[in-house]
Amino acid sequence: MTRYQLAKLVEWAGTFQSRKRMQKVVFLLQAAGCPLDADYDLHHYGPYSQDLARLTDEMVRERLLEERIETHPYGEQYSYTLPEASRRQIEDYEAGPRGAQPAQQLTRFQALARTLYQAELKDLEVAATIVFFHQQGHDWPVAVAKTCQFKDLPAGAPLVKQAEELARGIVG
User: Fold this and answer.
1) Which one, of 17, 35, 33, 13, lies nearest residue 115 by Cα?
2) Is pLDDT at 72 greater than 90 in this prediction?
3) Which CATH number fits domain 1-112: 1.20.120.1200, 1.10.10.10, 1.10.150.130, 3.40.190.10?
4) How far is CA 168 from CA 28, 84, 90, 136, 147, in A?
5) CA separation (Å) from 170 to 28, 39, 81, 87, 116?
6) Is the whole model's pTM more than 0.90, yes or no?
7) How many CA atoms lie within 13 A of 86 on its CB side?
8) pLDDT above 80: residue 172
9) CA 20 to 30 Å from 119, out of 94, 158, 160, 163?
10) Measured between alpha carbons, how far is 156 from 34 in angstroms, rounded to an integer?
11) Distance in Å from the first CA to the final CA of the chain
């Protein structure tokens, strides 16, 4: 995943709420065919990319992303926005000869990204886990069953049904 791609996803979001949401949105966009090229492993909260986490931290250190930390009773929540300088860099890059194709590739996924930004976080987490198992070669019923087992969820629960519908809508 490139700096441009992550910055563009944050730009579309306005404010990208939570690291977990960022992980799941990027994973699901990639599963839908968006060329983000982040490696994912299965983690307690579903698919997780160290590549994405490192890139995010790097961009915060270099002030390409602004990070806000809110403390809650359950822990800290991070959110990300683009500083004005980064917005201008995106505009300049997209207007130049090197940026036209990457911009075009990403723009095809803007509507899906906006839908995912609005989805319930738990739905994204479960849907991404279903897609992860599906990508490992399991058919949908097995991917759902493995997700239920992994996340200790009752099969047939409304959350599982919603997440499966979301996963199938993304991957097909």
Assistant:
1) 13
2) no
3) 1.10.10.10
4) 11, 37, 32, 15, 14
5) 7, 18, 25, 28, 10
6) yes
7) 22
8) no
9) 94
10) 30
11) 23
